[in-house]
Input
Amino acid sequence: MSFTPTKETYSGKVYPVTIGTGDKAVTFGGENVLTFHSFEGETPNRPVIAYEIQDVPPTDWPDSVKKPFEGVSDDPVKWAKFCQDELKAAVIALRLIGTHPDKEDRSPADASKTVSDLLAAIDVPLIILGSNHAEKDSQVLVAVAEAAKDKNCVIGKAQEANYKTIAAAAMANNHKLIAMSELDINLSKQLNILITQMGFEKERLITDPMCSALGYGLEYTYSVMERIRLAALLQQDATMQPPMLGDIGMYVWKVKETHAPEADQPQWGSTEERGIAWEATTATSLLIAGAELLIMRHPKAVEALEKVIEELI
Amino acid sequence: MALSGVEIFKLLPKTNCKKCGHPTCLAFAMKLAQRQASLDSCPDVSEEAKQKLGEASAPPVRPITFGAGDKAVKMGEETVLFRHDKKFVNPCAFALEIKDTLSSEEISELAGQVVGSEIDRVGQKLRIDAIALTNSSGDAGKFESAAKLVAEKAPEVPVILCAENPGAAEAAVKIFAGKRPVIYGANSSNVDAMAEIAKANKAVLGVTANGLEELSTLTEKIKSLGVEDMVIDSGARKAKDIIEQNTLIRRAAIKKGFKPLGYPVINFVQREDSLHETLMAVIGVAKYASITVLSSIEKWKNLALFALRQNIYTDPQVPMQVEQKIYNIGEPGPDAPLFITTNFSLTYFIVSGEIENSRVASRLAIMDCEGLSVLTAWAAGKFTASKIAQFISESGVEKEISHKELIIPGYVAILSGSVEDKLSGWKITIGPREANAIPTFLKTRTA
Ligand code: SF4
Output
């Protein structure tokens, strides 16, 4: 019996999405095969990692991921410049967590100012995320989308409860949009349909099927991503063809394994290395499942991901 | 190669005698094709048909066990390419490489690390499963003494003996008589001698080649020499090649029933940088490796890899559930808050994690709702006022606490009145809708 490799030819393709402007613009997606299957098709763009920063100091981040940003994280502009200039970030993801009513309840005007200041200071593409409070986000994201007009940012996240206002604002100001639903391929599909029915082009969407951390439901995100990607490639389902986001850092750095001191959990080993490994492991598995855009926190985890991506392409 | 129902039908007696419990031979053939019946049920089937069907009905990836006793490692038996289709069967084993060029102290130390690697996680015992002893010295005597030391320091741990030189392999394999080691490896230049040794010592044979063409030829040859239990290595070492080769192997076995590649896969992912190596192992676990060989096993690394393996190998069809009971978070005193939610494990993990983050010791009542999340369970009539009331009164929690206040999830705020009616003397407080608001909720309560 002689061996002949079983290669797949897929009829569908993931949309390539470009964000940012000028020389620093980046493109991800665009493949017509499962991720890293360059042996049977085209994988024109490498996955992109964005560094996460916040509009307010990261008081609730564990020490090991606060430390690398000591001295800059008190000011979003300093923080972003540090990521861009020192860490060579390809993209910055600003999370406007300070606008959450339970945090500092910052106003849409405050958020817009932060965004304008950032855009003046950096030239890499910017992802602008709300605080995940559906009502507040629909005010904040509308204001910041306007403040960032024509900068080709990514605005997120539009969810079932607030997609209309956010998608309209992203559309009016020429941005890309993250559509997030909770761990269910049908919900993702439905939300993408609702958004495109408003006249938002599907080529400008990014699907976020919701991240989960290693050990805390990662397999749900993993399988939803695999299923979305197979639907895009095999069934040519256009509503499932936008690239996917893994919003890693936020989910990973709150689980116990990323901050429990070694003194409390001697069998778990070094807290710092454990946290970094937790973030990098979560991120790598979601890359394999199909994510093209990752939002991460720890510079060492990002560095490890870049190294593994280098080996994968 | 898997046969269709009609192909199987052609091999059956076609008498429709019904002894198999099916109305016709064709009906039985259809069941066989779907692997829902066993050929043994037909008493009249010919020897020729048995042989043909036996080959066709063997699992696409051969089940193989190495090591012996409680710690033996099961591999193979996989039936799908994607975990959402069906549960991945036998979790990828992790092996620590120990080189025979190390000193006895170093070898003992590493063997000790493997023995001590076991931890408990979500009710499962997880460990580094095997030792891959490598003949880096090229010297048979050195390999043999290192093997003796490993056998002494880690007597229960399954071993993979990595040597290209048949003399070295033979010397070492004798030390593990009855313990079913893996001998890695047979390659195109030593295949006859290695097959002989594996056969004589009842060992599993690791086979390595340069690409899948050569690998298929080698496994066929080894099979004809009388060794059927193999683990295979395509020679891929770079991440990109590992994904490609492992995927092509799994596809060939499952989609084409291609027997020469229907064996468990071993990947060598050693890297200078331990974090990079961890991520290489992640790729192995996710993409079809049955064994990944590592060069170091720090505790943080093991924990991350164990958790990943657990995640990838859980059954996608069974909703994940935790046991119904009152969980203590921290060391709650009698006046500590009492929360209730459903037993969907993700809900439990997230809620208990957030309570933990808030550093307010609490009790968390987890109610059996068949693994559904709060809203779904409520909609399905499983998280209702009367069921909550019954669970709380029967749990006996009342005796442990000095208050009678129950915090319910914000999503079921609508239930608060009726729970209060059914649990006399209790005060029902509406908690946050999302778990991430729990720390603020607890802070404002105590303030
Ligand atoms: S027992 Fe065999 S011969 Fe009889 S009906 Fe079943 S398959 Fe046909």
